[in-house]
Amino acid sequence: MKKVIILLLLFSVKIHAQKPLTAILGAFRDEVKLLEDSLQHKQEVMVKGIRFVTGDFRGRPIVVALTGVGKVNAAMTTTILLMNWQPSQLIFTGIAGGVNPMILPGDMVIAKSTIQHDFGKINSQGMLMWNTRNPIDDKVNPMYFPADSVLFLRATKASNLTKFKEIEGRKIKVMSGIVATGDVFVNSDEKVKVLQEQAKADATEMEGAAVAQVCYQLKIPCLILRSISDNANSKAHVDMNIFASIAAYNSASLVLGILGDL
């Protein structure tokens, strides 16, 4: 079994040497299923117990993986992927809670930047967000991790051509914005207001900024895409169960549009 894994990894490296490879990550199965199903010449590779699916889409080498929920899981899977496949860019796709009152379930947020809303200190006045620090050179990271400009522009272009699933007959809206990441599922009207005021967030989730930080520190172009499954308020746990599968499909559809443009 180990020999098979080594051979597959060598095969992936060989492909990468010939053409740029794109990495795609998601936290839930529904977030990556459409992408896996769209690959040709699929191979499964297990590394440290994590399942990676390699293949190609319209001749472009792709590797897809499921991170699981939360910043630590996302950062771990991202690091293992980067070390074994050396992709030329990485896209994270999936669902999120809407913070901006103008967006509704099914709508898309192309992250122009991401921020960790739970990294910092708590005092009597509340949460004070801090910058993270790069352990490689000990420099302070930006508070907001910027999206790769090329991927961001391609996503914006692809969004105009992508056919999204509608919700209750409503046309899906696509916007750029700020995605706030934390190790909490936000199910609170009060917390939504805090994220609006402190992080200037448009959406909130549990992985994006951790992935963006790893990619920023290792100099890998990165883009976070999120489709809204709920509005992160007191009804979030109900709405997520209703709209999550459609939201996941819409985000993955946009990824396919970006890949087609690449």
Indicate the radius of gyration in whole angstroms. Answer: 18 Å
Terminal CA distance = 34 Å
Q: What about the largest sheet?
A: 5 strands, mixed, barrel
- The H-level CATH homologous superfamily, spelled out, is Nucleoside phosphorylase domain
Known CATH architecture: 3-Layer(aba) Sandwich
In short:
The chain is an alpha/beta fold and 262 residues long.
Helix-strand blueprint:
Elements: H1 2-18, E1 22-26, H2 29-37, E2 40-47, E3 50-57, E4 60-66, H3 71-85, E5 89-98, E6 108-116, E7 120-123, E8 126-129, E9 145-146, H4 149-159, E10 174-181, H5 189-199, E11 203-205, H6 208-217, E12 222-230, H7 236-261
Parallel strand pairs: 1-4, 1-5, 5-12, 6-10, 10-11
Antiparallel strand pairs: 2-3, 3-4, 5-11, 6-9, 6-12, 7-8
Task: Summarize the structure in words.
The chain is of the alpha/beta class. It has a single domain, classed as Rossmann fold. It is about 40% helix and about 30% strand. It has seven helices and twelve strands. The strands form two sheets. The chain has a five-stranded mixed β-barrel with strand order 5-11-10-6-12, surrounded by four helices. Helix 3 packs parallel to helix 6. It starts with a helix and ends with a helix.
Summary keywords:
two-stranded antiparallel ribbon, 7 helices, Rossmann fold, 29% strand, globular, alpha/beta, 38% helix
